[in-house]
Amino acid sequence: MTKDEIQKNIYGLSTDEEIVEFVKFRLKELEDGSMETTVGQNYTDTFRENIYL
Fold it and tell me: Which residues contact 1 (CB under 8 A, 6 or more apart)?
């Protein structure tokens, strides 16, 4: 999902339930498309992509 698509979806949300479902969907999408990597000593795992919101 591109940044523009995300913004369009966000502007179309009108209820709390829609917002919660969008957040759940976006988190799942990010988790499915990411790969855990360690970036260095004393660092935790991170996404290789940015989170757009």
Answer: 9, 26, 29, 52
